[in-house]
Amino acid sequence: MTLLAHERYCDEIAHQVGALRAVVTSGADLAGTVPTCPDWSLEDLVRHVGRALRWTGLIVRTRAEEEVPVDRAPGAAGPAAPGDAAALDAWLAESGEVVVGALREAGPHARAWSWAGIDTAGFWARRMTHELVVHGADAVLAAGLPVRPVAPDVAADAVDEWLDIVRFVQRVLPGAAADDLRRPGSSIHLHATDTPAELNAEWLVELPDDGITWRRGHDKADVALRGPLTDVLLAFYGRLPPDAPGLDVLGDRELLELWLEKATFG
């Protein structure tokens, strides 16, 4: 697996922060429920993202050797008054500057604690990129705006990372929902239909007893999810229904539904 360049992640974080800011200032109802994260309002979602960016910035800037409480990150609490779109926008902009500045200064190989045991700034550059991609889609859906395509290299890497995360959860969190993704002999195929062949935006995911395995490439599987890459990514992440326009499910739909139910951080 080849990761994107560190500067590419940094550039995409800045881009995704800008896109999220555009939602905040679009006139969307900040108190409205986020359909894909129904426990949150749109403002809750934005504050979650901003806190994550500032926390990451602190971890990377200080070269943390161990976990740091989120509330130690300067400015993590966000604007005092709820519902102030201008203040929320300014805070989010600063949050993006904090993390991008820390990541660029550190470079990919600098020491920085992570929950995944990959203790580098590079881990955080990748994680925050895809945190923003997915929560950016959450925000757009909450605002009733059209989902914009994610850059193909970023979207493909987001699928890779999500598969790595699910595998990690299976290994280290006994009893997590992802433990139920053990179906020896079963497989899922993802196929992006709008990308050049050299990107190889296809995946085969297998579910043996010792935890999921995956590889890029075309192969037959029990169920296939096909469509534009951004839509495949968001459906595989549970942000779009697999029957959304432009997506096709071929084969064992129940197996795909099992994935969508069980593939979570917890």
From TrEMBL:
Pfam families: MDMPI_C, MDMPI_N. Residues 11-139 form the Mycothiol-dependent maleylpyruvate isomerase metal-binding domain. Residues 153-257 form the MDMPI C-terminal domain. Keywords: Isomerase. The keyword NAD does not apply. InterPro entries: DinB/YfiT-like, Maleyloyr_isom, MDMPI_C-term_domain, MDMPI_metal-binding. GO terms for molecular function: isomerase activity. It comes from the Bacteria. NCBIfam families: maleylpyruvate isomerase family mycothiol-dependent enzyme (TIGR03083). This is Maleylpyruvate isomerase family mycothiol-dependent enzyme. It comes from Streptomyces ardesiacus.
